[in-house]
Amino acid sequence: xxxxAPEDFxxxxxAAAVTARVGTWLGVCFVIAFGTGLISHWxxxxxxxxxxxxxxxxxxxxxxxxxxxxxxxxxxxxxxxLWAVYPQLFRRPPRAAxxxxxxxxxxxxxxxxxxxxxxxxxxxxxxxAGWYPWPFSFRATHFAVAWLAVxxxxxxxxVKLPRIRAGYAERLExxxxxxxxxxxxxxxRVTTLASAAAVVTTAGATVPWLRRVSVFAVRSGTGPAxxxxxxxxxxxxxxxxxxxxxxxxxxxxxxxxxxxxxxQLEAMPHRTRELPIACVEGWSAQGRWGGVRLRxxxxxxxxxxxxxxxxxxxxxxxxxxxxTLPADFADHEDTLLALTLGGEPLDLDHGYPTRLIAPNRxxxxxxxxxxxxxxx
Length: 376
Ligand SMILES: Nc1nc2c(c(=O)[nH]1)N[C@H]1C(S)=C(S)[C@@H](COP(=O)(O)O)O[C@H]1N2
Ligand SMILES: [Mo]
Description:
- Helices cover 43% and strands 14% of the residues.
- By secondary structure, it is of the alpha+beta class.
């Protein structure tokens, strides 16, 4: 069997004029996804050197929405880019030793870039669907491979800069002949359309006015009080403890403890705040939360401001059963122990008897079914 050569593939639309342009959009998507990915990683760090800001309240919602939209838009772009350049795989290596070495190194760097890109888009997409069919930690791995992808991208841009320039200098339709199938311009149009369609049919998970057209959005606008549910009370195994008359919220500081019933929480000064739940998986929803200020509860045990708080759930196991709330968030005016959502008593699935809701915080850290607050 004889291996094909790059010339054996139709190269009418597989031109540098096309790959340079598709590559540019792909690069833009990757830069947005990388930047917002770093923000999300920072927001979820247990003990970062610089605490994540509490302002603006919608910041994480917008940043994570952009992250998922950029990754989604990148899927058709990457597929078209790979289709356009894969004949280059069959390029014969040069004979001269030094040239063969640089050729090999360049292929290796593209190998890293392509595998890292495919890995990021595949795991990211699975994550937006709440599907984790792998044994490794999603966040740590997605973060590590992001550096491989960006490193590979920088090398790739450096090596290909002359070719990218040439691609932009080349006309899109040098050989426009009628009836020869898709033109270069046509391929670019279809690619743009596919990318836009991918975003529009999914972004309703976070952009309310896109909900009706976002047929592929995983969670949008459904759930008690119009807010989706990530993990139900049954799935978390808290049904009994959350509805038991023996439920207490224990607040602890320096050996002192106070135990509060839900009724006692309800009797405290009540506040209402508009704050989003913004899941790392890409969906988000604004809610009108009512409840008591966390700071007011901490005052009951005489906890001074400036302390981080360990927040623990009734949930027995799972990575999200406890979180540490940095001092800036614990002391914030808008950080509540929610008792109501949308004017109704908090649903069991949203964290009844009470759940944490703080501004500009990833959903994964907004602990539900809170039963213990420990001032550190
Ligand atoms: N105890 C507990 N709290 C939790 C979770 C959980 O699994 N267990 N999931 C978190 C995640 S990932 C999100 S996005 C939000 C979603 O809140 P909701 O289900 O009320 O919309 O709750 C967070 N709080
Ligand atoms: Mo989440």
